[in-house]
Design a protein that fits this description.
The structure holds 2 protein chains of 2 kinds. Chain A has 2 domains: 1-31; 44-380, 7 Propeller (Methylamine Dehydrogenase, Chain H), CATH 2.130.10.10. Chain A has 2 helices and 28 strands. Chain A has helices at 3-34, 36-53, and strands spanning 65-71, 78-83, 89-94, 98-103, 108-114, 120-125, 131-136, 140-145, 158-163, 169-174, 181-186, 190-195, 200-206, 217-222, 229-234, 239-243, 252-254, 261-266, 272-277, 282-286, 292-296, 308-313, 319-324, 329-333, 338-342, 354-359, 365-370, 375-380. In chain A, a hairpin with a 3-residue loop joins β7 and β8 (140-145). The longest helix of chain A has 32 residues, at 3-34. The radius of gyration of chain A is 21 Å and the shape is globular. Among the domains of chain B are: 320-392, no CATH class; 396-440, no CATH class; 452-485, no CATH class; 549-588 and 607-696, GI Alpha 1, domain 2-like; 744-831 and 854-913, Rossmann fold (3-Layer(aba) Sandwich), CATH 3.40.50. Helices cover 38% and strands 10% of the residues of chain B. A 6-stranded mixed β-sheet of chain B has the order 15-16-14-17-20-21, with helices on both faces. Chain B has a 4-stranded mixed β-sheet with strand order 2-1-4-3, covered by helices on one side. Chain B is elongated. The chains are: A mainly beta, B alpha/beta. The interface between A and B is large, with 42 and 36 residues. Chain B: It comes from Morella rubra. Chain B: Its main location: nucleus. Chain B: This is Extra-large guanine nucleotide-binding protein 1. Chain B: Pfam families: G-alpha.
């Protein structure tokens, strides 16, 4: 078979694939159209609910949400943070090659862990708060026990290395209430459920299987009310819902975004999840119907649309916090899709891109991490109760 | 103690003063004066004036013992000196005036046989001075002993009571004795110490205690001891300040602390320690020899504000100040007093001494006077010398970081780091190694009202601070309150978590030394471009131990299991070839011989690819494992067991026959033959992979992640011209970060993590032009085109906007070999490659001796230009290209050194741009291309 012949074949095959893809798109659109009325119904229901339940949209005074702590100590861009379940501890991962565990109340550093590979992208606290996990470009998810002493070089011994990914580890999260299981997402287009005690893969989601992601997976989020379900966001502009018992195929695939899905986060009730994407939008999807419920998009004057880097829901779900690559951090009213507040415009806000954010377990404080190397803790400064 | 003059102690009067005592040594207890007024309790000691000059090491002084033995010892010591000492004691003590001190003073006088002046206590402003001393002053002789005195008639009790304590004064006078002894022995110098107290109840009376140790007229060396404070008139309060600052400067010598002009506190500390804890003094003096050279202090005999040399002028005439001794010279004298100023503005005797820390800020800042006196060039040279000469540098032990003085190396490192602290001043600093933050320790902890946080164990901390401020359970008040209110008290304190952590932080303190200049080089290459070979080569080249024992073991296992993999491929090939051969055989049989029975076929079933049953079983087992995909899991353990079998298999003729047809086995990588030919030795248990083995091995560096290695170019490297800059280079460290192209993802999302790298090294295999790559989805692309695509996407990435790129064209050896067989035009991008080939070129030997380049070289240049054009069309800048043979250490070394040169040039270019008067502008230069 000559090269010319090969090329010809390739061109033909590409054409076919493109044609099929187009047909798929058409089909999907038409499906959405037929369902349109129904979606609208849901939307009206939500809006009506919003009107009845909260006649006035959420409004914040200037002092309602204030930056009450600045956690300084990293010397590189902060890429990830996570809160503990119980205590007010935060672990943060930065490009200076360190994990720092903070006491959020006193802003003290409790642990500083020097990583063997400085290019860390994600970190997570175990549910018991005894260990932290992190992953990055070394394609390994490392577990550190916080109780083990450091060796003479200042390195904490890695208590477990979860190796097996063929690409960078972009995100990791412990399965709630289990210190022994962890889900990671990776640049090799897969998500993996790990058994930490053995250090082996329990199941691999995606990859060679057909219904997996077709590009790098950037984020995972485990359903808080049903820890068997988790959702993943990927560079293929989709989010997928997975059941840990069924690794072979995704339960559902959520289309809608026009750019890489950088972040996914389950809604507190576990029936919805939010996504944030490079197209500058955040979306709310329903896992039962598989439909998109809401789009959160702020019109920008110029063409440069800031990417959504990270999102988090308030404990009631009424507020959606979204960090943007231009340093903005919007607080959205999830029901009305209105921006309530921009933390980026407040006093002593971050100077760089907001790369990660997270809400404390009791919902009383928000922590944001930024490329300006700092983390900031935001809490209600007034007398209001947390919504 | 031959002649001790009687000291008249009048117990009945309020005053006590010294009278000559000629009787036998006192046997009775001398009565002590009792403090009368609480308000008069002194809190600070009398100031002392010490002028020191020594280039020699200070002798270690024995620690002083109890007061009484001390006085005896003193007199002995002083006897040894056999020097003339004038001691003027006018004790007017009401407060704790120790009798023994008095007698000590007396004995000193008497033994030295000098005149003792007894001053009545009611005398105000005691101004007695040795005539000889004055003579010295008047004659302008350099070695005159100055007298510092200050008394205060009017402010006596109010102002001075806190600094004056006669017993302490004597204590300090004992220092001066010690000191003067040292001085006299060594330099023959003189010093004058005066102590002046005034704390009489009756206002206006003053006491002067003058201990003048030795008017050393014979000490005609150049050292000049001028007491600045001498001309200070008695009645001014100002006069009080001078000696006190002198005390603090003496303190520097004593205690090795920074020059601290804390007027009040320091003397108190010193003298209290001296009296109450004698061992302190011992320690203090023992440390003295380390603080060489000590500070010099100058005294002027002229009137206030006059020049120190000609004694003319007043305080308004313009003067230049010596940065060591604070001597001021008018414009006529300055050049004579300071000479050629090899270390900046220091008077000649001060050269070689450390500067006065309070003048550090003015280093290198020229005065108007100097500018007028000297020409521009001289001024610049002097200011340069002042700033950079060794004696004027900040002594490292003055900089305390986290309670520990820096060593010399640490200070050098600190000042050569990429971001050195500007205007480093002596002092106590804190440094947080985790955050990298640092600052000066201040007395105050926190502005405003800090919040306190109480831990479980009762320790409490300030908000945001690391150190524990205290334990609530350790406080008496808490215990009392708990007892009163019958609150529960913890039985024992559990070990606090916070403390543990702080220990951990302290332990790894020298970590900040790591933050030296580190240049990062990002090495990216498409699959099979040889980037990992270059990475391994760098490791072998620049690391003393390229691979640790564990790594070595892993590499060994990797090579061995790779080898089994190659075997598997061969065995698979063998089966295929056997089948093909059998079919062929059958066809041959069926066509040539018509045989009804199957016997013949059975007989002829053996081809050259057939193997015996035992190897066959092994081969089947191996293939089965390969299919199930757990080859790696099995083989490290099985290596030893199966090594003989493999050996047997390898020598099998069928395998050899298959191996000879290896070009037909697509799966078999080209390096496989390298290993297969060494199969027998590799599979031995005592096999140690050689460097070449490691370089050839696949998958040794983490194939899917990222690998980095820190190294520095060794200065002893061959063919590296040794110049001054290279010395510096050994300090510079480089980090080579290898990133796998597959890990990059589609849109290189995380390249922004590498925004701090100094340069991107992009690796392309020259031999890729006829190779095809299957990206998994069935589409096949030329590998060279794939490389080009990756190159474009990385060059266009916003993170690498202004980044330098070095293109490494790797595998030139393969290209040279291949280009003879396969034309370069195989790749679409290179379809216009039509080299002009010299007809005289010998076809086989490409490295011809004549000047005409080989096709390989032509192709290299052609490809390099292609990439360069592509790069400049994308960025408008220049692409650096280097030719490398990955397996040859020298060529990799050259390429990485080239990268270093580019980085260096970048730094220098920045310097050129910064300097305003640069005459080396690259713009408009006729030589610029």
């Amino acid at each position: 078979m000559s090269v010319a012949e090969l090329k010809e074949r390739h061109a033909a095959a590409t054409e076919t694939v493109n044609a099929l893809r187009e047909r798929l798109k058409q089909k999907r659109l038409s499906l959405l159209d037929t369902d349109g009325m129904w979606i609208l119904e849901i939307f009206y229901f939500i809006a009506g609910y919003a009107r009845s339940q909260a006649r006035t949209p959420v409004s914040f005074g200037p002092t309602d949400l204030v930056c009450c702590r600045t956690l300084q100590g990293h010397t590189g861009k902060v890429y990830s943070l996570d809160w503990t379940q119980e205590k007010n501890r935060i672990v943060s991962a930065s490009q200076d090659g360190r994990l720092i565990v903070w006491n959020a109340l006193t802003s003290q550093k409790i642990h500083a862990i020097k990583l063997p590979c400085a290019w860390v992208m994600t970190c997570a606290f175990s549910p018991t708060g005894q260990s932290v996990a992190c992953g990055g470009l070394d394609s390994v998810c490392s577990i550190f026990n916080l109780n083990s002493p450091m060796d003479k070089d200042g390195y904490s011994p890695v208590s477990k290395m979860l190796s097996g990914h063929k690409g960078y580890v972009s995100s990791c999260q412990y399965v709630p209430d289990e210190d022994t299981h962890l889900i990671t997402s990776s640049g090799d287009q897969t998500c993996v459920l790990w058994d930490i005690t053995t250090g082996l893969r329990t199941s691999v989601f995606g990859g060679e299987f057909q219904s997996g992601h077709t590009a790098d997976v950037l984020s995972v989020s485990i359903n808080g009310s049903n820890s068997r379900m988790f959702v993943s966001g990927s560079c293929d502009a989709t989010a997928r819902l997975w059941d840990t018992r069924v690794a072979s195929r995704a339960v559902r695939t959520f289309h809608g975004h026009e750019g890489d899905v950088n972040t996914v986060r389950f809604f507190p009730d576990g029936n919805r999840f939010g996504t944030g994407s490079d197209d500058g939008t955040c979306r709310l999807f329903d896992i039962r119907t598989g439909h998109q419920l809401q789009v959160y998009y702020q019109q920008h004057g110029d063409n440069d649309v800031p990417h959504v880097t990270s999102i988090a829901f308030s404990i009631s779900g009424r507020l959606l916090f979204a960090g943007y690559s231009n340093g903005d951090c919007f607080v959205w009213d999830t029901l009305l899709a209105k921006v309530v507040l921009n933390l980026g415009s407040l006093q002593n806000s971050h100077e760089g891109r907001i790369s990660c954010l997270g809400l404390s377990a009791d919902g009383s404080a928000l922590c944001t991490g930024s490329w300006d190397t700092n983390l900031k803790i935001w809490a209600f400064g007034g007398h209001r109760r947390v919504v | 103690m031959s002649s001790v003059e009687a000291s008249g102690v009048d117990d009945g009067t309020e005053y006590s003063f010294a009278v000559e005592y000629s009787g036998p040594p006192i046997t009775y207890d001398l009565p002590r004066a009792v403090p009368i007024n609480v308000e008069r309790i002194p809190v600070a000691a009398v100031v002392a004036q010490v002028s020191l000059c020594d280039k020699l090491s200070l002798p270690v002084v024995q620690p002083l013992l109890a007061p009484d033995p001390r006085s005896r010892k003193f007199s002995r010591e002083l006897k040894m000196l056999s020097s003339e000492t004038t001691t003027v004691v006018s004790p007017t003590s009401v407060i704790a005036f120790d009798r023994s001190n008095e007698s000590r003073g007396d004995s000193k006088e008497l033994e030295l046989g000098s005149e003792a002046t007894v001053s009545p206590s009611s005398v105000t402003a005691f101004e007695e001075r040795d005539t000889a001393n004055q003579g010295c002053v008047l004659s302008g002789e350099l070695s005159s002993s100055g007298a510092l005195e200050f008394s205060n008639g009017r402010y006596g009790s109010g102002e001075l009571s806190d600094v004056a304590n006669s017993s302490r004064a004597l204590g300090s006078s004992s220092i001066s004795h010690e000191r003067s002894r040292e001085l006299l022995r060594r330099a023959g110098s003189s010093s004058t110490i005066e102590f002046c107290d005034s704390f009489d109840k009756s206002l206006g009376s003053s006491m002067e205690l003058r201990v003048s140790n030795g008017r050393r007229k014979e000490s005609l060396d150049s050292n000049n001891y001028l007491n600045q404070a001498d001309w200070v008139s008695n009645e001014s309060v100002l006069s009080f300040d001078y000696p006190s600052s002198r005390v603090s400067s003496m303190k520097v010598v004593d205690c090795k602390t920074e020059a601290n002009c804390d007027v009040r506190r320091m003397p108190v500390v010193t003298f209290r320690d001296l009296e109450s804890d004698d061992s302190f003094f011992g320690q203090g003096t023992q440390e003295e020899p380390e603080t060489m050279p000590v500070k010099r202090v100058c005294q002027s005999k002229g009137k206030k504000g006059s020049c120190y040399r000609c004694f003319k002028g007043n305080r308004f005439t313009e003067k230049e100040v010596c940065i060591v001794c604070d001597a001021k010279y008018c414009s006529n004298c300055v050049l004579r007093a300071m000479g050629s100023m090899p270390e900046g503005r220091k008077c000649v005797p001060c050269i070689g001494f450390t500067i006065d820390e309070s003048k550090r800020g003015s280093l290198g800042k020229c005065s108007r006077m100097l500018k007028r006196l000297l020409n521009d060039l001289e001024v610049r040279q002097i200011m340069r010398a002042e700033k950079f000469c060794e004696a004027n540098q900040l002594p490292p032990e003055y900089v305390c970081v986290n309670g520990q003085p820096l060593s010399h190396e640490e200070l050098v490192m600190l000042q050569t780091c990429p971001n050195p602290p500007k205007k480093l001043k002596p002092g106590n600093y804190w440094y947080d190694k985790v955050s990298g933050l640092w600052g000066k320790l201040a007395g105050v902890q926190c502005a405003g009202n800090p919040h306190f946080w109480v831990n479980d164990d009762g320790s409490y901390q300030e908000e945001g601070q690391k150190n524990t401020r205290g334990y609530i359970w350790g406080k008496a008040g808490t215990k009392l309150a708990c007892a009163l209110l019958s609150l529960p008290v913890p039985s024992k304190f559990s070990n606090s978590c916070g403390e543990q952590v702080s220990n951990q932080f302290n332990r790894t303190l020298p970590d900040y030394l790591e933050q030296r200049t580190l240049q990062k080089l990002l090495l990216i290459g498409f699959n099979g471009s040889g980037a990992s070979t270059i990475f391994k080569q760098a490791k072998i080249l620049y690391k003393a131990i390229p691979f640790s024992g564990e790594e070595q073991e892993n590499i060994k296992l990797k090579i061995q299991s790779n080898l089994y993999g190659y075997f598997g491929i061969i065995l698979e090939g063998r089966e295929r070839f056997e089948e093909e051969a059998l079919i062929e055989l059958k066809n041959k049989h069926s066509s040539s011989i018509i045989d009804p029975s199957g016997n013949v076929v059975d007989n002829d079933n053996k081809t050259i690819y057939s193997i015996g049953p035992r190897p066959k079983a092994f081969s089947d087992w191996l293939l089965k494992n390969m299919v199930s995909g757990n080859l790696e899991a099995i083989f490290p353990a099985a290596t030893r067991e199966y090594a003989p079998l493999v050996e047997e298999l390898w020598s099998n003729s069928a395998i050899q026959a298959t191996y000879s047809r290896r070009s037909e086995l697509e799966m078999l990588p080209s390096v496989a033959s390298y290993f297969l030919e060494r199969a027998v030795s590799i599979l031995r248990t005592d096999y140690e992979p050689s460097n070449l083995d490691i370089l050839n091995a696949e998958g040794v560096t983490s194939s899917n992640g990222l690998a980095c290695v820190d190294f520095s170019f060794s200065p002893s490297a061959p063919d590296d011209d040794i110049d001054a800059a290279d010395q510096n280079d050994s300090l510079l460290r480089y980090q080579l970060i290898k990133v796998h192209a597959r890990g990059l993802g589609e849109n290189c999302k995380w390249l922004e993590m590498f925004e701090d790298v100094g340069m991107v090294i992009f690796c392309v295999a020259l031999s890729d032009y006829d190779q095809f790559y299957d990206d998994g989805s069935g589409s096949i692309t030329n590998k060279m085109m794939q490389s080009r695509k990756l190159f474009e996407s990385i060059v266009n990435h916003p993170t690498f906007d202004q980044m330098d790129f070095l293109l490494i064209l790797n595998k030139f050896d393969l290209l040279e070999e291949k280009i003879e067989r396969v034309p370069l035009t195989q790749c679409d991008w290179f379809d216009d490659f039509h080299p002009v080939i010299s007809p005289f070129r010998s076809s086989s030997n490409s490295t011809s001796s004549n000047n005409s380049p080989s096709v390989g070289q032509l192709a290299f240049h052609y490809i390099a230009v292609k990439f360069k054009r592509l790069y400049s069309s994308l960025t408008g800048r220049k692409l650096y290209v280097s030719l490398v043979k990955g397996l040859e250490p020298e060529s990799v070394d050259l390429a990485l050194k080239y990268a270093r040169e580019i980085l260096k040039w970048d730094e220098e270019r920045a310097n050129f741009n910064l300097s305003e008067h640069s005459i080396y502008s690259t713009e408009g230069s006729p030589f610029s291309p």
